[in-house]
Amino acid sequence: MTVVTAGLVSLLGLDPASYRPHMLHAPDRTYAETNCYADIVVELLHACGMEPLAAMGCAVRVDFEGDQWTFLKPLPADLERLFGIDVHELQPYRPLPEQALEQILDGRTLIVELDAWYLPDTAATSYRREHVKTSVAIEGIDPAAERLRYFHAGGLYELRDEDYRGVFHLSGSVPAEVLPPYTELVRFDLGAPLTGEALLDAARASLAEHLRRRPRDNPFGRFAVQLEAVLPTLFGRDPAAFHAYAFATVRMAGSAFQAASAHARWLLGGDADAICRPLEEIVEGCKALSFKLARRRHFEPQPTTDALAAAWDEAMGSFDAILG
Predict the structure, then answer these.
(1) Radius of gyration of the chain (CA)
(2) 3-state secondary structure of 88
(3) Minimal CA–CA distance to 11: which of 160, 148, 164, 182?
(4) What is the pLDDT of residue 146?
(5) What are 76-86's pLDDT values in tens digits?
(6) Which among 100, 76, 82, 114 is positioned nearest to 9, based on CA atoms?
(7) How many CA atoms lie within 13 A of 244 on its CB side?
(8) What domains can be seen in the chain, in order of their start residue?
(9) What is the pTM assigned to this prediction?
(10) Cβ(21)–Cβ(43) below 8 Å
């Protein structure tokens, strides 16, 4: 699987200029991205010729966690069952470029938390503006030429030179307070990925399991209570705090249920209409609530949160009816 070209050691031999992202990251979707971790798993599977939608059944389990919604991540057990992929923590006890190079040469790769300050694809947000941790999956590396290719957000990108030295802390001594980044090893050698009917059957079984572990009560009801309580304090806070709240709540929920809708459509085809309709109502409702919050003026959230709760009940009921 590994390709070596002009010093660049690449997992799949891909070129950012010609790479085409998965449909979950199409620009016309309500949420073109989900979160940094889910997005890179989607693109890594897609780039390997696998269908990431098969692993998104876990989205039906997202819950309101008291002050935020569940951070959606495809579960390691699903990745192993569906695709023969093992993801587990790696100890970054040596320079990361060395470890990444060796693992890619062995047909593996790393998922690693890096500082978005050095990631050129975040030019519209964090690049050279803000130190923010984010996860990437390494596709290729050339230590001699100081070049890194990586999956991030909804695509494949490349950084070089000063950004390379900065993202790996190569320009000088690393301050004592800077912790090693959380790093995971991705192995592709646990068996051939499922395809066709076998993949559909396994994904359906996984979805049924996730539905059994969904929230026991309506999470939008609990979210409504918390939103009512914090809303008066939001408008007096600085914009950064406000946007952080919006991302952790309505955006996390909306993007997760959009993934759940796409999974249901892929798995069930036309039978998914009764599921996807209320799920898309959740997506649009979360987007509408985001706009209302962004105005930073008082509004009455109950009509929107009531509609979101009703749509969740309808979607879960339809899942149960169709899957038995």
Answers:
(1) 21
(2) strand
(3) 148
(4) 97
(5) 999 999 999 99
(6) 100
(7) 7
(8) 3-187 (3.90.70), 217-323 (no CATH)
(9) 0.95
(10) yes
